[in-house]
Amino acid sequence: MAAQQALFMAAGDGSRGSLPRTPRQAEVAARRNGVEYVELPCRTLLNKTTNPHLSFTWTINPYRGCEFGCAYCYARYTHEFMGYDDPANFERRIFVKTNAAPALARQARAQHFDGRPIALGTATDPYQPAERLFRVTRGILETLRRYPKLRLSIVTKSALVKRDTALLAELARRGAVTVGFTIITLDRRLARTLEPRAATPQRRLRTMRHLHDAGVPVALLVSPILPHLTDAAADLERLIIAARQAGAATLRCNPLWLSSSSRKTFFPWLRQHFPQLLPAYRRIYSQGMYQSEAYITRVTSLMARLAAKHGLAYGTADEFAPEGNEAPGTEAPPQPQQLTLAGS
Ligand code: SF4
Fold first, then answer.
1. Given the DSSP bridges, would you call strands 58-60 and 47-48 parallel, antiparallel or unpaired?
2. pTM, rounded to two decimals
3. Distance in Å, CA 148 to ligand 1 centroid
4. Rounded to an integer, what distance in angstroms lies between the CA atom of residue 114 and that of residue 335?
5. How far is CA 52 from CA 7, 56, 224, in A?
6. Relative to the CA of 123, which ligand 1 atom is closest?
7. Does the CB atom of residue 321 touch ligand 1 within 6 A?
8. Measured in angstroms, how far is the CA atom of residue 60 from the centroid of ligand 1?
9. pLDDT tens-digit series, residues 36-93
10. For labeling, which of 118, 126, 314, 342 is most exposed (least CB within 10 Å)?
11. Strand ranges, E, within the chain
12. Count of C-beta atoms within a 10 Å radius of residue 330
């Protein structure tokens, strides 16, 4: 179990020294569809991981908060840390690291960036709707493309990544990038309630195919696997086959883990949509955040077998840290240093 837990441990969201002291009073840069976007200047963007089980050294998160609003998302703790106790704030008040690209360039110079692997989008989706407005992820990619030794993995549930196809294809020709798509079910209705504002699974698969056809290596991330909801072997096999047909060459997965922060959203969701499963989930997660070791072994063994059967590479070391269910908040975001918000 220790090794399994260690796989789940990654660094925070990379905004070291960047939080506003009083985020409730921070200036809103834009409003759209009931969502507020708040500028969050950062001094550093690359966040160094400390977990030796992860195969990437750095993480980058262009945003804090995520409009996709997945019921199981672990990253809500980042808003709790800033004093937002209502979980809805995570989806409705998005912090935007608008100066990410220059901060990244400065930091890369200072740290003598040497091309060790970077995971983009470990805590929030880098192609969430805010990216359409602010293009922070785009700026980061344009900065990173300057580094000849770049090794980058991106994780998303968004079709917006298609916008950057040409740039990603350029990086792929250097062997510098892989794009992972988190898809946990092909059941469109279930996905709609679980991941209310993310692209449908079918749209993610089409986007995966599009990038694959453009020469960009793509991967399937089945994370989290939900007990009694998405863990049926036949369903998982159908998902893997669909991803294979869309060009996925790699499979990663993780069973659901539930921090105290994510329980506040997940259990009400379960009560609303699958009340009959409440007792089972209470029992499973009564001892802590993780499923039993026996369950984890059974599910990951099944996924490894299915991967082999359908010709996908499968590894236990994490190449990706799927946003929202693989990098628990084991490291609280650091204390704020300075409040310098620019208005829109
Ligand atoms: S799981 Fe990922 S896509 Fe879903 S809300 Fe969390 S960060 Fe966003």
1. antiparallel
2. 0.86
3. 30
4. 28
5. 9, 9, 22
6. 7
7. no
8. 15
9. 999 998 888 998 888 777 778 899 999 999 999 999 998 988 888 888 888 889 999 9
10. 342
11. 28-32, 35-39, 47-48, 58-60, 63-64, 93-96, 118-120, 152-156, 177-182, 218-225, 250-255, 313-314
12. 15
pLDDT digits (tens, 9 = 90+) for 88-134: 899 999 999 989 999 999 988 877 777 889 999 988 999 999 999 99
- Please tell me the distance between residue 109's alpha carbon and the centre of ligand 1 in angstroms: 30
- What are residue 18's phi and psi, to 5 degrees? -120, -5
The correct CATH number of 2-314 out of 3.80.30.30, 3.40.30.10, 3.40.50.720, 3.40.50.11710 is 3.80.30.30
Give, in order, the Cα–Cα distances in Å from 195 to each of 48, 157, 198, 224, 259: 29, 9, 6, 12, 18
**Which residue type is seen at 148?**
P
* Token output for 75: 């990253």
